[in-house]
Amino acid sequence: MYIILYILYILVVLYLYKKYKIKKERFQDKNKIIVTCFAGREYNMVILTKYLDKLIEKNKIDEIHIWDYTRDPADTKYVDTLKDKYTLMYPSNKKNWNEYYEYYKKNTNDNDIIIKLDDDILYIDVNNFDGFIEERRKNNCLLLFPSIINNGVCAWYQQKYNLIPDNLHKF
User: Fold this and answer.
1) Alpha carbons within 13 A on the beta-carbon side of 169
2) Tell me: the pLDDT tens digits for 61-83?
3) For 68, how many CA atoms within 13 A lie in the half-sphere containing its CB?
4) Model pLDDT for residues 20-39, shown as the tens digit of each residue
5) From the CB of residue 63, how many other CB atoms can be counted at a distance below 10 Å?
6) How far out from the chain centre does Cα 28 lie?
7) pTM assigned to the model
């Protein structure tokens, strides 16, 4: 009787794994920090990769995935030069991000932390990076954003809360 129940249990588990494409590792207690980047533009990536290299060198992250969303053939060629340092991902359709989200849905553990970057990030505070990760772990929030300075709206709020001094520029 117990053998029949055990076999039935195994069959149900295998069916669920197959149906929902759930990987066994998803239930293990791993906790990786994965940086992902929508890449492209060489002139930005040259700067960003210096910070990514520092994060790897200081053991602050476990993996870097560079997603090739380039539009210019010269940028594609540049991204290909990164294959020895990072994991390169080549979506079949560069006009949407479905493959990106599906990949992490199927290939990450529930405890993994995914840090999504765009290629226009030109500064990462490597020394305070651990604090960002700890804040994410402590609050177990779905999304957490650092202070991003890339447009007037963000800068206005940052200035309002005294993160950008008034004498620098008035937003």
Assistant:
1) 6
2) 999 999 999 999 999 999 999 99
3) 20
4) 454 444 444 458 999 999 99
5) 14
6) 20
7) 0.73
